[in-house]
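Lab notebook, bench 4. Still working through the backlog of constructs that have no structural model yet. Next entry is a single chain of 429 residues. Request: give me the structure tokens for it.
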Amino acid sequence: MMLKSVNIPESIGLFILAFWITVDLWTRPLSFTDEVLPSHWSVWIALVYLILFISMYLVTRPFYFPPRASTQWFVTSFLLYVTFHGIVFLFRPAADSSLTLLQLFTTWLFVIIVLSLALPLFIRWFQLMNLILLYQAFCLAAYALIVSFGRQYVPIDNIQSLQLGPFSLSQLYVGEQGSFLRSASLTNNPNTLAAWLVPGGLIAWMSVLQSIARRNLRSFILFGTILIVIFIGLVLSASQTGLYSFCLLALLTTLLMIPARRLRFLVAGFYLTGAVILIGSLSLNRSLFAELISLNGRSELWQAGLTASLDRFWFGHGLGSSVIGLEQQLGSSTLYTFHSTPIVYLYELGFFGLLLYTASFLLILVRFIRDCRHDDPLSISLLLLGLWLLLLQFTESVLIRPSGFYFIWLSFLIYATRRRATSQESTHT
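Model written out:
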């Protein structure tokens, strides 16, 4: 409905962008690979992105670049650093050459496309992205809930299946049979599932609050049902980061969207009271409390990453080298990454790469905080998505690989460096 005012080429371009940020999620193999993928996968997915770029060019000819703000040098510096760093470290033994080429190739293609978006198209792109995040989260959560009733297991591959007549639905799980199994739905990791569910749940919660304010019962039932299903999916994933992030950002959403100050204080008081009761209850079980504070052993991975970064502190070890660095610190039996985007940046791109990344992220948050208004749902959703990526990056290595999370962050960065609407943009069609 929101695309009625957009001409057909621009509508097609928006859906190509939407497919660009979701193709990685929906095409990855259903196996517990985390972010370590075979080399032939990089070649295959690169061809997909190339087809998307060519399609986008043929439809919209994305080579008009609206005026940029003076902060554009953040984008330029970051891209140039990653490009030259990738080329210099391309043939180093520790670096992953296929991943490096994929990173540079897809990044530049995506930047060329997004740089051409005028402000009205940017707004429609973010509106469409919110809808996709909402309904994608609902589908992933509903699938995880349905398959969780399955009783067929393949322990070696960690696959749980539900047989429905001639059809078999499968999902990856983590855990031991007979105990609570963490569901991953159609993703390759329960934490990845939770990462995609959080933004969808926040948008559903925003819609519920809007329905209450407008006294729209039908909308309240629809989005309330979606919210419940997504929250059940979060519980099934058992992701601490996902649950913490959702609860914190749901509180912020409520405070931003409620106009009455007294009611905002009341809601905040209920949240804080509940948090105190929860923390007090968990502190009675010291072993469980210590495990929660360490985020299931992530502190050990972070310490290993910081230690491994010291020998090449300034310029790093090259893209894709963190897997080898972790093995050198904790042994080859370790199946995980450093579980922290800043630490992966430090290890692979060095201190200067981490500095550019941090400055770019701060620029996004400053722009979104400055533009946020309680009467503008889109500005609130952009701030929430920015904070979602901020919380996600500290416990997951998701913003340094060509994936949906990375491209969403990159589009935020480009949007944050553009100027406000100018008269020149009205000539662009």
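Notes after review: The chain has 15 helices and four strands. Residues 18 and 129 are 6 Å apart (CA to CA). Flag for follow-up if needed.
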